[in-house]
Structure prediction request, 158 residues.
Amino acid sequence: CPHCPSIRIDSEMSEPETLRHIGSHIFKDICLKDANELCGLCLNTGGLCSVYLIKRAKDVWAIDMKHLWCQNLKAFNIKTALEFKTNSPCTNHPLLCPLCPTNAPAIWKYNLQKHISQSHYGATVHLYKNLFKLDPAEHTLMKRLFNNKPCARKSKGN
Prediction:
């Protein structure tokens, strides 16, 4: 992890663990609060990473692995990632921005509100709240994950 030297994001780390760890940074890391278009797999900014989605069936989307660019390339089930669970609270996943062209890269859920307000001037952001709104429990648990992650403990001298 670029912000936690003690955490290796590699093939040994499961997809849910990767999403939780990186998601906790996007969600709560004040060092990243002004960053744009953070990648949900590696924290690269400004669209350096691209995730495209393909439709598999009615309302079933998947990551197009042929058109994914990220140093932490991982396939994961979007349907599983968008389901909030107390033992796996991160619902950050790539989704299509309803205001972008259909062939545009996906936007990560935790970035969508900022994306709409910055990239679609004049858009009424609250009309799309159902796409980025978090369950209050997810908010609490992701904050706790960030505060308890190993890199936070390491900085306190552990």
About this structure: The chain has one domain: 15-151. Confidence is low (pLDDT under 50) at residues 152-158. Helices lie at 15-28, 78-81, 109-119, 129-132, 136-148, 150-155. The chain has six helices and four strands.
